[in-house]
């Protein structure tokens, strides 16, 4: 197995342990066992648990960035900026594997070292700066917060809304956006 493959196996094992068994089982020994490497092999690639978490977060944020982040063109064009928000609403009640892994990385970071939360805070800060470019930044923020709330409820398995209720919330958010924007047909 190449060094890149080994690192990837370790990162995947770490996420799987957190998702399937919980944060209490997230130890270097368990990660090494699940990845099929020795603890020394794991430490060669990740000298500490904090380094492993940092790399998990970097990987997950890069994946999330590709899936949700507006492109430069979308940011500079009011029409596509609003379309991006409509797309964000559509994805709000489906928790993707990236969302799930990002949340597990967040939980791991907070549980082990609150200083590791910085990259996640930076990610959300960047998203907010993008929303601040919208025609109505307050409404854009409301839409994001409501959408994130539905997404995180699904991820954390505390989702109490029926599919019909979620659909109505999403529809109302879309209506609010269309009512406030001259750029949406």
UniProtKB/TrEMBL annotation:
Keywords: DNA-binding, Transcription, Transcription regulation. One of its GO terms (molecular function) is DNA-binding transcription factor activity. Residues 27-46 bind DNA. The keyword Transcription applies. Transmembrane segments: none annotated. InterPro entries: Homeodomain-like_sf (IPR009057), HTH-type_TetR-like_transc_reg (IPR050109), HTH_TetR (IPR001647), TetR_CgmR_C (IPR041479). The keyword Transcription applies. It comes from the Bacteria. Residues 4-64 form the HTH tetR-type domain. PANTHER family: HTH-TYPE TRANSCRIPTIONAL REGULATOR BETI (PTHR30055:SF234), HTH-TYPE TRANSCRIPTIONAL REGULATOR RUTR (PTHR30055). This is Transcriptional regulator, TetR family.
